[in-house]
Fold each of these.
Amino acid sequence: MLCLTRKVGERILLFTTDGVITIALGSAHPKKAKLAIDAPKQVVVVRADLLDEKAVQEQADLALARAVDVDLATLAKLLDRSGLDMSPCRLCGKPVICIPDGIPMCVTCAKQEAEGQ
Ligand SMILES: [Zn+2]
């Protein structure tokens, strides 16, 4: 865990796939500190003491799913610029990178098909 010392008004920036999260120290007292958090709307910000371990894991899984979506969108842009092709898997529809004249199939479907033969 990264531990930082901040003076009142100083900010910390977190660069995420969802955007920049800004955390500022609003005020500080011997046993309490007030934090001001500015985050993109898709970022869930919640006090940890309000969630149990399962709820924390669920939020982490949702955030990871969003990150994968962003990565696929970025990958699609890069592929578009490079001239390579991204097509839906012929069995499940997930986007996959295709070699020229290849059959678009994701790794999961390819393994299942290989095991079925
Ligand atoms: Zn598939």
Amino acid sequence: MTVRDPMHFVANQETPSGVGCKSQSVLRALRLTILFLAEDANNAGAGPVATVSMDHNTFIPGEITVVPGTTVTWVNKEAMPHTVVDLNKGFRSKTLAKDASFSFTFATAGDYDYLCSIHPNMKGKVIVKPAS
Ligand SMILES: [Cu+2]
């Protein structure tokens, strides 16, 4: 497959000095950036989402079942700082102060046991399985 870039081709033809080429390549970079951002926004909006709260030193709900592709967001609802740490090291949040959140998109089916590294008896589980 051949990919052509007509804008770049025209710029080369009309401005042999190279000045036009430079501004064209800046424009091209901008265009690519915009495409990238647009794609990113689409992805963020496309998948299902779920929320887990952290309150009273507890993940609520403690166990959730989601389909692959779901973005889970943990939100700390209390003044006590918490973290979200996957026991299999798939994800790990920073320390979350009150109202801070952490998100992770689960692409792969499986059971994900996690805990708060500050309060190791504070545990939760995300079960990722395709809808039947
Ligand atoms: Cu904690």
